[in-house]
Design a protein that fits this description.
alpha/beta; Rossmann fold; six-stranded mixed β-sheet; two-stranded antiparallel sheet; 8 strands; 38% helix; 24% strand; globular; binds guanosine-5'-diphosphate; binds magnesium ion
Length: 206
């Protein structure tokens, strides 16, 4: 059957969420995808994969957001977890200095495992819990963290109060579309992706 030339394209990008617990990664996904905030501290059970659907210039964009529990889990499974990623989000908590300092480790870990033709993948730095009015790092320090570690962009957000949550994602979405990394749907078929996810889930609950 002939495919119309102006047929809408569907693009799928895997984006992994990284950062210490409990900076708000799981809450971010819940807010960004379902516009809900439950306010409870639910440890992510193993790994969750949630799809956010966006429309851009007539194309359907699917962001597969991968959220895993705990640093130990990621360390154990990072190769599997990061596989096929098109980009990442690294989050810290503005009230937790340690979570800010650890941003660099997360970034180095991600960059050491997934690259696109020798280039680092796009990565967003999110400073969460701006509603609490504390700043564990100065703007200059956050700027330096972002620049020195090759982040595409950084934004201070509040998942709780829904401040800048959607907007913070725009620069990453723009880069993903422009670079179209990891969007080789045939190479990364749904089957493979589901298999990978199941594999991770099994490992992570073990
Ligand atoms: P994760 O371990 O990084 O996935 O963190 P969670 O999403 O489980 O969130 C940890 C805790 O921080 C929970 O109690 C959330 O309700 C809380 N939290 C998440 N985002 C915000 C925010 O923007 N402001 C405030 N005040 N609390 C938040
Ligand atoms: Mg979580």
């Amino acid at each position: 059957m002939a495919v119309p030339e102006d047929k809408e394209r569907e693009r799928v990008y895997k984006v992994v969420l990284l950062g210490n617990s409990p900076v708000g990664k799981t809450s971010f996904v819940e807010r960004y995808v379902n516009n809900r905030f439950s306010g409870t501290n639910r440890a992510t059970i193993a790994v969750d994969r949630t799809v956010k659907v966006l429309q851009r210039n007539g194309d359907t964009i699917k962001l597969e957001l991968w959220d895993i529990t705990g640093r130990d889990r990621v360390a154990q499974f990072s190769r599997v977890y990061y596989k096929g990623a098109a980009g990442c989000i690294i989050m810290f908590d503005l009230t937790d200095r340690r979570s800010f300092e650890d941003v660099q480790k997360w970034k180095l870990d991600f960059d050491s495992i997934v690259r696109n033709r020798g280039k680092n993948l796009p990565c967003l730095l999110l400073a969460n819990k701006s509603d609490l009015g504390q700043r564990c790092a100065t703007i200059d320090e956050i700027n330096a963290m972002s620049k020195d570690n090759g982040f595409s962009n950084w934004t201070a957000i509040s998942v709780k109060e829904n401040k800048l949550v959607s907007r913070s994602m725009d620069p990453l979405v723009d880069i993903l579309i422009a670079e179209d990394v990891g969007n080789d749907v045939e190479e990364r078929s749904n089957n493979e992706c589901d298999g990978l996810w199941l594999e991770l889930k099994q490992f992570a609950v073990a």
